[in-house]
What does this fold into?
Amino acid sequence: MAVVKTWSTTHIISFEVSILGISESDERFEVGSSWFHTGSLWAPNSSETEWVSTQNITFDRPFCAIPTVRLFMSYLDAGREPVGSLSTTSWAENVTSHGFTLGTKVWNGRTDLFGVTLRWIAHDPNEPTIRSGDLEHISKEWVRDKTGTIRFDSPFPTSAPSVLVLGIAGMDCNYGHKNLRFQIQESNLSSESFDYVAGCWASSRMKYGRWSWIAIQ
It folds into this structure.
């Protein structure tokens, strides 16, 4: 069962969620989640324009090789200040066969988040039934969205993947006193590629976006 909800004065106009069920016995993957909040240790960078928090993750089953790690945001409570903007992102670093460091940061006037849950999925990069990747946008100007085509490093041999999961890992959005709108959508999935549109719509705009995707045969 998937539950989508808001609280306090926030309301949903539209929402889409990707669901991926992975069996504990599926040795292709290691999965987990991490929770960051106001009580987490947030440290400023040298210029105090960004505030960063990290957690060390240990895999239950070590990989034989250094795995690929993809991140998906499943919970966000950012507070109202500064009004009309939200700047946060996440990443995996220091990845080894035994674990990695999960990082998240905020900027543009924020020093922490009330709460954010980051779901992570790790897999062997040489596993023939899996393709995955990150998509990132960086610009100096506020833009609406980013469109393009993701081509798999190697095509799936027989058909399009049976599962394609996409999600948000970070954003730098300006939405004024209106609604925050941020997304990633896919189309034209084949054994070789898929098309995407990622970012904002209506009056929302972005200077930064980060998204993750996983395709499974």
